[in-house]
Write a structure and sequence with these properties.
This protein is mainly α. Helices cover 48% and strands 11% of the residues. It has one domain: Sufe protein. Chain: A (Alpha-Beta Complex).
């Protein structure tokens, strides 16, 4: 994979969104919101370990783990914030299990490429972009440690 090439998991998610009409894209985003994995007990019992993504209107928290070269992303967002929760779920499902290099190579503008810029506010897209940015920053910090 070359730098700024989209990993297959995220490319498939992007392509699935782009294959749909605008209204159907929102429905798919809601499906992702409902599929956000629960936090493992080590985080649900210690929310202080998670980092809040301040750029998001809704309280979204993330944590990145590195197991060798494999990345695991965990996130939580309130059920009453389905758009934000959907974006978090896209990233968790698309990133979890990738290698460090694959995650760091994800284009920063990935959130702009999934066909939702006309369906949701620019502020929400910026929130997803911030989630991705914080994920990469945490990943770099974990690898450097």
């Amino acid at each position: 994979m070359t730098e700024n090439q989209l990993p297959a998991t995220l490319a498939e998610i992007r392509d699935d969104f782009l294959a749909l009409e605008q209204r159907e894209r929102l429905e798919m985003l809601l499906e992702f919101a409902n599929e956000l994995p629960e936090l493992p007990p080590r985080y649900s019992e210690h929310p202080d370990l998670l980092e809040r993504v301040e750029e998001c209107q809704s309280p979204v928290f993330i944590f990145v783990e590195v197991d060798g070269v494999v990345v695991h992303l965990y996130a939580t967002a309130p059920r009453e914030a389905p758009t934000t929760r959907g974006f978090a779920s896209i990233l968790v499902q698309g990133i979890d299990g990738l290698t460090v290099d694959e995650v760091l190579g994800i284009p920063d503008d990935f959130p702009n490429t999934i066909g939702l810029t006309e369906a949701v506010s620019l502020l929400r897209i910026r929130g997803m972009t911030a989630m991705l940015g914080r994920t990469k920053r945490q990943l770099r910090e974990r690898v450097a440690a």
